[in-house]
Design a protein that fits this description.
The complex is a heterodimer of chains A (239) and B (137). With 239 residues, chain A is an alpha+beta fold. Chain A has four helices and twelve strands, in the order ααααββββββββββββ. The mean pLDDT of chain A is 81. Chain B is mainly α and 137 residues long. Chain B has helices at residues 2-11, 22-30, 34-52, 58-72, 82-105, 111-136. In chain B, helix 3 packs across helix 4. Chain B is globular, with a radius of gyration of 14 Å. The two termini of chain B are 18 Å apart. The model of chain B has no long low-confidence stretch (mean pLDDT 88). Classes of the chains: A alpha+beta (239), B mainly alpha (137).
């Protein structure tokens, strides 16, 4: 039995190696069936949402209360936003903005969406103009967005005054960490964090709020909670 | 088989941290049902490729390789008892997830992510195999 089992699995492994090699070489573009699969998965998601709408409502209620709390905080800091780069970003990029439907979000943070003819590297925002990520791969019918939930994405970040905080690194599950922030930079909880410079992302896009500050002997470590929200099932790309 | 197919098609798009097809595959592996093991491995792994948008043959390759490695363990350790199966599952999932992250994303990703996938998958497989054994008994 042992020999039969190992023999069978070995044959399958060898066949799959050949098939995988062919698939990733000669049949590199399996896009049509993947596009069918993505659209089918979207249908299934919609189907489950129709069957269990109550849990969604509860989620929305929770989110609504969270939003109310955030709004209260936002009102306090709204004055700080005037004359800042966010406003000018909006004017700069608004004419180039295109909408795309989300087809699938995987657990690693990659978002599959319809392709509204955007280019690779296009910046992706949510409905509130908060940074979601960047287009990582373009297909004929769909595109893959590398969201800030994907671990290991690095980019420079600044505070609301435009001071460089340091190099931010995404750590998945909706958080970003900034290590070695100079101790003289005053950072408070719930402060806004924006992109800085033009390295991985253009400057001035809102990323998140400060959730935790750890004092270390090398300075400060800041944990940022990402603010982007994909609830309406849409993202906005800058062409 | 049909039940597993329905489970895979209707639940896998929602549960992106758990690989549903591994439940029946490992169940057949422990029960020494080789024909069903091979059939479900080929059929379900191709459907999982489509759901996870991976090159066709990706899951078949990493699953068969992981199975091959734990198969070698049978020389030294049986899998009749629960604790033995846990050892098998732990080893299988570690190899499988290592290959999934390494070949799928070119990196192992962060440890917390790896651990989350590992725990979720082992829990799912233990539940699947236990429920299956209870219903068949």
């Amino acid at each position: 039995m042992f020999r039969k089992k190992i023999k069978n699995i070995l044959v399958i492994f060898l066949l799959s190696s050949v098939f995988f090699w062919l698939s990733s070489r000669a049949l590199a573009q399996e896009e049509l069936i993947f596009n069918f699969s993505l659209n089918f998965q979207k249908l299934i998601k919609n189907f489950w949402q129709k069957i269990f709408p109550s849990t969604e409502e509860d989620l929305y209620k929770e989110k609504y209360y969270e939003l109310l709390q955030e709004l209260a905080k936002l009102k306090l800091t709204l004055k700080q936003f005037k004359e800042t780069e966010i406003i000018s970003q909006r004017e700069k990029y608004l004419p180039r903005l295109i909408e795309a439907d989300i087809l699938k979000i995987d657990s690693l943070g990659y978002i599959y969406s319809e392709n509204p003819k955007a280019g690779e590297g296009s910046i992706v925002l949510d409905k509130n103009w908060i940074l979601v990520g960047k287009v990582a791969k373009i297909g004929k019918n769909y595109l893959i967005i590398s969201s800030l939930n994907v671990p290991g994405i690095e980019f420079n970040v600044a505070n609301i005054e435009g001071e460089l905080l340091g190099l931010g690194k995404t750590i998945s599950n909706g958080f970003l960490e900034i290590n070695y922030v100079r101790p003289e930079i005053g950072v408070k909880l719930n402060d806004f964090v924006l992109t800085y410079g033009d390295d991985n992302f253009p400057s001035g896009f809102l990323v998140g709020t400060v959730k935790k500050i750890n004092k270390t002997k090398f300075g400060q470590q800041i944990i940022v909670r990402l603010l982007f929200d994909l609830d309406p099932g849409k993202v906005y790309l800058i062409k | 088989m049909i039940f597993n197919l329905i489970l895979l098609i209707f639940l896998q798009p929602l549960l992106t941290s758990v690989f549903i097809f591994l439940g029946p595959v490992l169940n057949y592996f422990f029960k020494e049902k080789i024909k069903q093991l091979i059939l479900s491995l080929i059929l379900f792994s191709f459907i999982t490729d489509l759901i996870f948008i991976k090159p066709l043959g990706f899951f078949l390759l990493i699953t068969s390789f992981s199975l091959l490695l734990i198969c070698l363990l049978e020389k030294f350790l049986g899998h009749q008892h629960f604790y033995q199966r846990i050892i098998y599952l732990l080893l299988f999932n570690t190899i499988f997830l290592f290959l999934f992250f390494f070949l799928g994303f070119g990196k192992i990703s962060i440890f917390a992510f790896f651990l989350k996938f590992l725990i979720f998958n082992i829990i799912f497989q233990v539940i699947y195999i236990t429920v299956n054994t209870l219903f068949r008994a």
